[in-house]
Predict the structure of Type I phosphodiesterase/nucleotide pyrophosphatase.
Amino acid sequence: MRKHAVAASAAAVLLGITGVSAGTAASAAPTDPPAQTAAPRTPKTLVIGVDGASYDVLAQAETPAIHALQQGGLTATSNLPASPMAPTVSGAGWSTIATGVWPDKHRVTDNNFTNPNYAQFPDYLTRIERAAPQRSTLVVGTWGPISTTVFGSAVDERIQGKDDADTTAKTIDRLSKGNPDDVFVHLDEVDGAGHSTGSSSAAYRTALQTADQQIAKIVGAVEQRPGYANEDWLIVVTADHGHTPTGGHGGASRLERKTFVIAKGSEFPAGTVRDDVKIADIAPTVLAHDGIARDSAWELDGEAVTDIVPDAFDALRPKLRGAVDEKGLVGITGWTNEAPEGWTVDNSKMPTGGSTEFRGWTFMTDDFFSNAELGQHRENNVRSRNVFAVADSDEWDDVSPKSGRNFDSTLVTPEYTLNGAATVDISFVSDYAVDDPQGAGVRVSFDEASGLQPQKLVDYPANGTRANPVNQVEHFSYELPRDAKGQLPKSIRLNFSYSGINSAFWVIDQVRVSQPDAPTPDPAAISVSAPSVVAGGTATVSGTGFEAGERLALELHSTPVPLGTVTAGTDGSFSQAVTIPAGTAAGQHALVAKRADGSEVSIPLSVTAAPSTGSDGTGSSTAGSGANGGSTASGNGSTAGGTSAASGASTASGSGTAASTGTAGAGANGSGSGANGGTGATVDGLAVTGAEDPAAAAILAGSLLALAGAGVALGARSVRRARRAAA
């Protein structure tokens, strides 16, 4: 089922477009189509991992091969999580790169691989083998677990190098002599230098330069392949963690957590720099490059880089400011209290004072937020991207002496216009840490005209430990309420409310609102030549918007009366004359075009009584005069109520009953319209009609009887008594 993103406003849409453009280099579309379409190139991928490479040192080092990849493609830096999700170690880092999920899913939190969840979250080469077994996959790694554990046995070839030089040589051999499609290479010796001498040492920079030379040889082997011109290579360079200046990793410092994605391929304009790409995005990007469709059941945390959509918060990056009260963040530009266009922050319940940067809902980058105070779970906010919204009662109150002041702020989205569907799909990244007392929840509010009260979408626990009870992308399929008349609201807003007394925090990002297709009004419609038709008369029914050649049954309702069938023309229209049965009761009816699936298209139609008419019948009768204008006749008769009289005579009185003998004459369909829409009396084809007025029915029946009482021979005429107008 298609889903439609619900636009907050035209301005918000424009902001999104600007955000995309800001994150990528512009490239002009060709004004003329190419003269001929080139044959599609074979997609191939190469991911090179440099263990322990610190990006800040790498960026300043003489590493021309890596810099050439940056200039020709994408550069993106981001941060790893830290304990308790996972320390900054190789097992956790490479598992995230290989699987496309964070450690709380793949469960590798050390280098012993004691409890991996690779069965549910396998490496991307294994996924390639399952989806496209004809592709050739290759792993070559210096660190043993890369080729024995991180990448599974489904990979076509897994090789362990004796050292980085051997790993490089074996990779070049396979690229030159074989035909691998998807390759992962692991170089380990930069990490060794970091452990030995630290990331600030000359030995560490030399190790980076050596790794760069090895990368140059591997990339050269790719470019020298005989079929290179017909191949579409995606080349990625990344790292599992950084290093401290004095050596070592595993902690939560900025140098240990900072990592990077450098990528060159047809997906990326030259010189692209982005702030919203993380190492968990590498696996999905490789799969997308190979044309392997992502399955939602995989539950990947990462996204193909080309599928990452900036949100309204990301548009705030040009407005970010430096620290004011947060002394430990001096030199980092990464916060603003200015909400995106269309969003509002309600701080009416916020006390004064506290940290300026954290007063109410504000907007931050991970560098600013997670480094405000280490070791308090802020580092685990890995599912947010770029700029996100933060409510942090702890850090707000910590700037001043703790005083039990209650943080209470609400973030309100723009108004999302709805399309008429009965449900709305809502998703957002939610990283909620609790250190009681605090509370958090989302409410859905509706347009004022609907008269609907706000409703709860979700509430989060108010008590517990700081361990994040929620750190995920939330998804809700929300059934919209209806007002007293059964109407759906026209728009909604989301209200994110958080309160706490020096407790913990709540992070929100990537708020998305979408709806399934709205019910499509049936384009089919019918019309009638006149809004009112006399019973027994004809009318022309016309229709449009039907399927070409669709066969329809035309009926008169309430009680269905067939009027005929009609077939729509090639343009879906028709025009058909129909006769309204003369016996149709006067009043409101409906003309109906009934479709093969049982559905109906209708239009109101008023039917009026036919005028009184008659004709001679056959047979004979003798009429006499009776008291009160009545008459007596021999033969079979009937009462006005329609009950058959015994053979012999039937007596009629001036109140409106009639006596008859002989054979009934021919009437309009053998019947007429009687009082209040009942069956009227027919005398040799004369229909007693127009009796919606009870007095008219009595007068007409009495007149007929007066004629009979005067001795007027009516011949063999069948008389059905008109219904009595009153008891």
Remarks:
- Residues 9-31, 615-727 have pLDDT under 50 and may be disordered.
- The CA atoms of residues 283 and 383 lie 15 Å apart.
- The radius of gyration is 42 Å.
